[in-house]
Amino acid sequence: MEISTNHALIFLIIWIASFISVKYFQKLKPHSIYDWLEALLIALIGAGLVGWVLNGIVFNEKMRWLFIILSYIIILMGFNFIRSKKVKDQDDMMVAGRSLSVKVMVFTLICTWIGSGTFIAGAEFAAKAGWSALWLPAGAWFGILVIYFLAAKIRTFGKYTIGDILEVRYGKFARLFGAIALIISFTAIVSYQFKAGGYILNVISDHQISVETGQFLAAMFVIIFTATAGMIAVAYTDLPNGIIIFLACLIATPIVVYNAGGGAAMQLLPPDHLTVINPQFVEFPILKAISYFLATMLLLMGVQSMYQKFYSAKTPRDARSAVSLWIIGTIFVETVVVVIAVFAAAKFWPQIKTFLDGDKVNGIDPASIVIQAAKSLVPPYVGILLIGAACAVVISTGMNYLLSPTTNIMRDIYQQFINPKAEQKKMVALQKIFIVVIGVVAYLLCTKLKSVLEMSYFAYTIYGVGITPALLAALSWKRATKAGGLASIISGSVVALGLYVVGFIWPSIMIPVGDPNGDPFGVPLIYPAFIVSVAALVIVSLLTKPPQKAELKELFNLK
Question: Which of 549, 479, 557, 485 lies closest to 157 in space, CA to CA?
Fold first, then answer.
């Protein structure tokens, strides 16, 4: 439908009346809600004017999907610019002034975890392997249960990064090596958020925007959003994004199942797709399935972006309450995304098989299966909601994982080893610069990626084996020593990174043979790396002098 002059005039009159009303009440009784409304109105007038000019001129019927998504992103940008005014110091930039309520905490935790790893990598996995793809998210569900018992302690500790915890237990070098492992892992995670953004923009524009251009646009939005207001922008962007994700999954799932053909559609898939452990899991299917479970479990139990959210809560009780709701939301969203992907894969299996057989032009990339479902298997208003959810998770997760490593650079490297007495304003300004730098590095990396699924698995693994064992021991095992923690971080990271690099140097030892992203000798690299990391932690700790009472005081409330 074309936007007429009358429609535009009505829109303008309503906007003027709303803006005057907001400004009046803002002066009468100042409140943050009026800042939000002002930002929304500014964003709406911008989106409305652009839409009026471009409607029917540049954007054809297919491109209007893209226009609606970009309008939503412009609205978020308006919110973030308003929120940026509240960033005064480190607490605001890194942990939102420790002011997040349970409601905001729940949605920001969900949006932090539910990223392109779910909507793109998880969906790709489900399209290729069927129901056994649930092994990937199931590890996170178990990890959240463990985190529930630690959330209050983490908030009580009240710092900024996991490096603060590592230093208390294991010393400055553990903090440094932990920061390095985290920066490598999180830069990889940010890179495939950009890749996922490219997929989404390519599909919704009917390929009029290339994947490469889409990656650039996704990178630009995420970098700008994060650099604008740090954790304040991240947390309060996650609130509307989380609501959209829930609504999209709730409404779209039954429609996709019905339009794909219901239960009968499963007969269109290869029999392997209906098994608990798909035999296509290379040499040792059971080991591969459990490796996916371990990778997500270990990442979630130690991922810094979650710990930053706990630090951002108003109280320890709020942190723990948010986790109990977080697990419900996460199980729901990750399960229904797999359901959507499997049924959509059944509908489009001939095209997916064509793509997997090498015909990239006429086939459908399984990584885009949720987006294909949104365009073809649901009504337009539901489709735009589902695509909006996919965009929301890419933006939210990209922001979270871009903010986190830059926080480490500032806290664990710059402030610890370069300028311990840095002024607050300088810290905030420098972190914004590093957000841009890491964002650009992640963008360059994403241009080289072949598979979102493979990169996400590697990022989960190197973090899970390098950081998580030492971190959990720091919070729960009094006998862990400085030498043991440091040995665990270094050995786990080196083995994981070393085995990954070996695949590119000697691809002949990888299974599938010649695939550098395969498993060395058919054994997923998480097993040797995790065993070495835990063994180093336990053996070295038991062979060295137990920690003094003073070293345990902050984390174990010892008197």
Answer: 557
Question: Which residue(s) pair with 219 in the sheet?
Answer: none
> Please, are residues 217 and 146 in contact by the beta-carbon 8 Å criterion?
no
3-class DSSP state for residue 520? strand
3-class DSSP assignment, residue 544: coil
Do 162 and 14 share a structural domain? no
Per the structure, the count of domains in the chain is 2
Residue range 327-360, pLDDT digits in tens: 888 899 899 999 999 999 999 999 999 998 888 7
pTM above 0.70, yes or no: yes
- Rounded to 10°, the helix 172-204/211-260 angle is 70
pLDDT digits (tens, 9 = 90+) for 404-423: 888 888 877 888 888 888 77
How far apart CA 528 and CA 535 sit, in angstroms, is: 10
Q: Which long-range contacts (CB under 8 A, 24 or more apart) does 542-546 make?
A: 542/479, 542/484, 544/481, 544/482, 544/483, 544/484, 545/481, 546/478, 546/479, 546/481
Task: Compute the Cα dihedral for 495, 497, 498, 504 and give only its sign.
Answer: positive
Asked if residue 333 and residue 316 are part of one domain, the reply reads yes
Q: Do residues 68 and 152 share a domain?
A: no
d(CA 416, CA 422): 10
The residue length of the chain stands at 559
pLDDT tens-digit readout, 411-470: 778 888 888 887 777 787 788 888 888 999 999 888 877 766 677 778 888 888 988 999
